[in-house]
């Protein structure tokens, strides 16, 4: 960690005047912890409808009535990403709404796939951390003094700017120092006292970062069922100097490592809690720098990095479940799914307030989709945009068959591979007799389903990947290449549509897009998986009668339940393959 903190912080003072040079110095990893005076710069009126004084009031009131606000922060390109400078960013602001929400569009330059999302606010590469503070965080602070807990967390893929936003840099203090400075200023001349704790959740265990040797903390249930961190140190701070001294030591103890995607990647979720108390009231502000969501294929993680990553991703998924439940006002909020969410139980939900800052790297489309899918699950999704016009739609060549085969082989599923190859012949379809297992009781079928997945996957693969499937219902001419997948809506038979509510995007396109394992697409939300396959008597009959029919004919001949089930299982199969 030594390269994160090259200087001594006890003697450094950074005032919060706007820097004279470029607002976003592009030094590789500014992890210095600033000392700052309370923020004084006014919010900059950009990108948001609620920046005018009137709208600003509306914003505060909307923030106080919402349990969770979701705001987007897009970082600028880094020098190392200069090669991407020619490519337009994958995210852009396309509109704002009277209620204060904004719509952003994510666009994949390679496939012209695009989606729109609604978020509560948008901060672009020109916006400073102090803008985020002024517009989103400062409004939470008065509530802390009235006993209303609040949580601000930075969420996003690795390298998307979470630590930069929460911790800040030497020149541009992050939300943590800005919040402490504001709280301390508010306490001046009152009887309020301020204490901080700082801990990390690493591989589902909690470590106190303010204690020497980052002592592990016992997590115990209290009588209300909330998790309490027994033995967590609370250190009183009376000035920014005191805070900086304590905090900088904790920051150096936090686990970080070099990964394929970030030179200094946080490997734990770090929670800084600021507790304000007077005789009668205690309020708490949690400022959380979450570890980054990681795509292990891109990060090339192995060994311990892979284990860390899997814990990180699963706890982020648990957090997204909690946020989603809170946003939807569900009666059951799944706090118990991870250590992180259990610890935050008293600060998420109830009368507490939360701001999720979704951080985006402007060049990685799939990461952006993944991050914003959390917002989508919280009811923020607007719509999938119609595909670009046909002449602009590139033909995507996806050799999914080879990928699938490779995956099966890498898992030692040579039998499945053979079976898959066998199924490429017209006779590879199940005969009615091979469907006899469908007559078993449902429970037996469900328990045997995992085993059957390979077979089903192969069968679905045959239906979807055979070139003939990609011809239109009207025009059954086969394309020249079996792997060529056209992405226009017209080319998918209407009977393939798994989600009746969402017809704007072809299901085949969805099926062929990377589907992160923990990403809940609107399709997943709308269509509960159908576990029961129904015996397609008529279908099997037709297949037998017409062994040379195209796979499209065969598919169309199946019963609608079976078709939907195949699609669903195909999607599930792809998810497994993605993992
Ligand atoms: N708004 C910004 N302006 C300039 N540089 C930025 C900005 N946001 C992030 N960066 C730079 O991008 C790089 C990655 O940022 P950071 O370490 O904060 O990502 P992260 O999301 O915390 O990653 P991880 O989850 O791996 O810890 C750093 O070099 C940081 O300085």
UniProtKB/TrEMBL annotation:
GO MF term (any one): ATP binding
Gene3D superfamilies assigned: Kinesin motor domain
Compositionally biased tracts (Low complexity): 51-62
SMART domains according to UniProt: KISc
UniProt-annotated stretches for the region Disordered: 36-62, 415-436, 471-513
SUPFAM superfamilies referenced in this protein's UniProt entry, alphabetically: P-loop containing nucleoside triphosphate hydrolases
One of the GO biological process terms: mitotic spindle organization
The name this protein goes by in its record: Kinesin-like protein
Organism: Aegilops tauschii subsp. strangulata (Goatgrass)
């Amino acid at each position: 960690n030594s390269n994160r903190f090259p200087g001594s912080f006890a003697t450094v003072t950074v005032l919060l005047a706007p820097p004279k040079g470029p607002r976003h110095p592009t030094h590789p990893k500014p992890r210095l912890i600033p000392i700052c005076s309370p923020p004084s710069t006014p919010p900059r009126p950009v990108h948001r409808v609620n920046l005018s004084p009137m709208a600003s009031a509306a914003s505060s009131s909307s923030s106080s009535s919402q349990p969770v606000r979701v705001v987007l922060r897009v970082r600028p390109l880094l020098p190392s990403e200069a090669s991407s400078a020619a490519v337009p960013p994958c995210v852009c602001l396309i509109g704002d709404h009277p209620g204060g929400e904004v719509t952003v569009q994510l666009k994949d330059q390679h496939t012209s796939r695009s989606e729109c999302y609604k978020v509560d606010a948008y901060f672009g590469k020109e916006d400073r951390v102090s803008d985020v503070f002024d517009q989103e965080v400062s409004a939470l602070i008065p509530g802390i003094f009235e006993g209303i807990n609040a949580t601000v967390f930075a969420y996003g893929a690795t390298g998307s700017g979470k630590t930069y936003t929460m911790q800040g840099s030497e020149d541009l203090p992050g939300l943590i120092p800005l919040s402490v400075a504001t709280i301390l200023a508010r306490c001046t001349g009152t009887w309020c006292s301020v204490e901080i704790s700082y801990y990390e959740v690493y591989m589902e265990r909690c470590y106190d970062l303010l204690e020497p040797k980052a002592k592990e903390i016992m997590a115990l249930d209290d009588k209300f069922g909330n998790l309490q961190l027994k033995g967590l140190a609370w250190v009183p701070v009376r000035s920014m100097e005191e805070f900086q001294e304590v905090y900088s030591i904790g920051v150096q103890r936090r686990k970080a490592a070099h990964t394929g995607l970030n030179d200094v990647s946080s490997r734990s979720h770090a929670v800084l809690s600021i507790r304000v108390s007077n005789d009668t009231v205690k309020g708490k502000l949690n400022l959380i720098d979450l570890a980054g969501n990681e795509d292990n294929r891109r990060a090339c993680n192995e060994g311990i990095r892979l284990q860390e990553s899997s814990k990180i991703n699963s706890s982020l998924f648990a957090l997204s479940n909690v946020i989603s439940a809170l946003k939807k006002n569900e009666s059951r909020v799944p706090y118990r799914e991870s250590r992180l969410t259990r610890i935050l139980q008293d600060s998420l939900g109830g009368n507490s307030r939360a701001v999720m800052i979704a951080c985006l790297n402007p060049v990685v489309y799939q990461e952006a989709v993944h991050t914003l899918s959390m917002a989508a699950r919280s009811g923020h999704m607007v719509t999938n945009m119609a595909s670009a016009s046909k002449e602009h739609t590139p033909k995507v060549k996806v050799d999914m068959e080879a990928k699938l085969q490779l995956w099966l082989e890498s898992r030692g599923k040579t039998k499945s591979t053979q079976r898959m190859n066998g199924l490429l012949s017209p006779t590879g379809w199940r005969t009615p007799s091979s469907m006899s297992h469908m007559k078993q009781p449902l429970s037996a079928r469900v328990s045997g389903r995992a085993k059957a997945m390979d077979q089903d996957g192969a069968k679905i693969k045959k239906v979807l990947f055979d070139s003939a499937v990609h011809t239109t219902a009207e025009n059954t001419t086969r394309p020249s290449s079996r792997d060529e997948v056209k992405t226009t809506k017209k080319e998918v038979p209407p009977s393939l549509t798994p989600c009746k509510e969402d017809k704007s995007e072809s299901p085949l396109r969805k099926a062929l897009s990377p589907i992160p394992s923990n990403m809940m697409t609107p399709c997943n939300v709308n269509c509960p998986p159908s576990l029961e396959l129904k015996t397609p008597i008529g279908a099997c009959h037709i297949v037998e009668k017409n062994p040379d029919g195209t796979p499209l004919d065969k598919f169309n001949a199946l019963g609608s339940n079976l078709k939907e089930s195949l699609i669903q299982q195909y999607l599930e199969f792809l998810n497994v393959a993605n993992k």
